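Entry for zinc ion complex. Fields follow.
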Amino acid sequence: MINSIFIFLIGLCFGSFANVCIYRLPKSKQTLAGRSYCPKCKKKIKWFDNIPVLSYFLLNGKCRSCKKKISPQYLIVELIMGFGFLLIFLNYHNHLASILLSVLLLMYVIIFFIDLKHFIIPDTLNFGIMILALSKNFLSDLDLSFTQITMHSIIGGIIGYLSIWIIIYLYKTLKKMEGMGLGDAKLMAGIGLLFGWQSVPFVLFVSAILGLLMVLPSLVEKKKSLKSQIPFGPYIITAGIIYFFYGDILYQMVLGV
Ligand SMILES: [Zn+2]
């Protein structure tokens, strides 16, 4: 019990760190160190106002100096990381697997929210995932739904990248516009490296369906057209998580093997 609470608190702290990255990485602020400040009034945040989750409620979701609303995203990210770390800790008893999953969770959460807001995926994160995804093949048996066969991993990376690259190319030639970015291609390469080439068709298909479902209401209300830019990274990540949990079962159902 004590251990679980401790892991949850560590997760909250990493959630705070994730929030800093989500805010600073797209603005290419060199340093991730340094004191946090309110994005609205730029006043430095005192340490006692910077306690994950707790401060949000004590301050009633408002900045102490300018009283402007603090985005609930800060709270959401902290809670995702807290519960994420806890679930990983409770379900995986292989330490190496737990650490790998925790680092991946951190990077995917940061990418998810950056892409959602800014329509970009920083290369540092994409390359970080690729390196991690490739090096996990050389670790002892992780017992995760990742592939640990290096050849499956490398082919997955290449097919993942090419699949999005081809979509970008076709969009450019046929419709003369950019549907997705190379950031999405690199993100997909990371998924292929993690799960192997077998995962790429599934993740592509499910992310496209998810994207369509999310855009559909605003298409109907004509708030957006098919030409509007939509962030695709969050759907790739969501589809990747579904594959992580249910990939095997779904493939068996579809292929009947
Ligand atoms: Zn403020």
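NOTE: The two ends are 41 Å apart (CA to CA).
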